[in-house]
Amino acid sequence: MQPETGWKFSGIQVSAEELELIVETIKDLGGLSRTELAHTVCELLEWKRPNGGLKAIECRPFLEELDAKGLIKLPELKVSGPKKKRPRKIAPDPPEQMPALIETKLGDAKPIEMELVETPEQRSLWREWVSKYHYLGCTVPFGAHLRYFVRVTHPESQRVGCVQFSSPAWRMAPRDHWIGWDDEQRVKRLQWIVQNSRFMILPWVRIHCLASAILAQMAKTIAADWEARYAIRPVLMETLVDRAKFEGTCYRAANWIPLGQTTGRGRMDRKNLRIGKGAVPKEILIYPLCRNPRKKLLEP
Description:
By secondary structure, the protein is α+β, with helices and mostly antiparallel strands. The protein has helices at residues 16-28, 34-45, 56-68, 106-109, 120-133, 173-179, 183-189, 210-230, 249-253, 293-298; strands at 8-9, 12-13, 102-103, 112-116, 145-152, 158-166, 193-201, 205-206, 236-241, 257-261, 283-288. It has 2 domains: 8-68; 95-298, Aminopeptidase, CATH 3.40.630.30.
């Protein structure tokens, strides 16, 4: 089947020559797994992040879409052992099994620190807590991401929350209108935005105004950490608040700017089917990480 035009990868037009190369590569390397093929295609076409890392996470679903359209034939998914069930939220611990209550004044608990999740032990505990105590549970974020524990330092250093930043939503009309960019500008600068996709204070923590203090510390921390990991210094944070469950008071108290609501389509819904966990209308809030972020996002 001859490759058709009109395909895009990460918002960039894929040429007929590139599609033909993908088709021939899949034919020649049929013994590789889908993940290995995604890495190979990224290497051949130099689909990389600014820090040099391959965009293999994004490439695999792109290849699977080509497979669904009949342009290529991917190997069957390998199943080892019983079929895996979808991740589900772990039931919260009974109150008597929770750690001791942390209850103090914010001034007595400062300074607030952001602990980057890097080791296997940290990742395991972060996933466990978010699975148990966050209403969306713990899922693998799409694209680039950073995770943190939040610590208070007095009277002793203790973890009090979990935070995640990930790649921004591909298109949100209120945000895009606020910035004032067109599709071409959005494709080129979208990676300069990060999304606060998880934010949770542990249920045994009782510190008044802690959430707003954490948001303030996040704003001081994320730009340098994201640049160190991905070679891009973000200029804007965004988040989505389900107003059916939360008021978003802490974001407003931390001077985040409300822009309006999403359509409720979810991150990967390109056909307006409104499916998936994110497929409910949510309020969009943003926070600038530099002066005049709109100017930087519109720079040629």
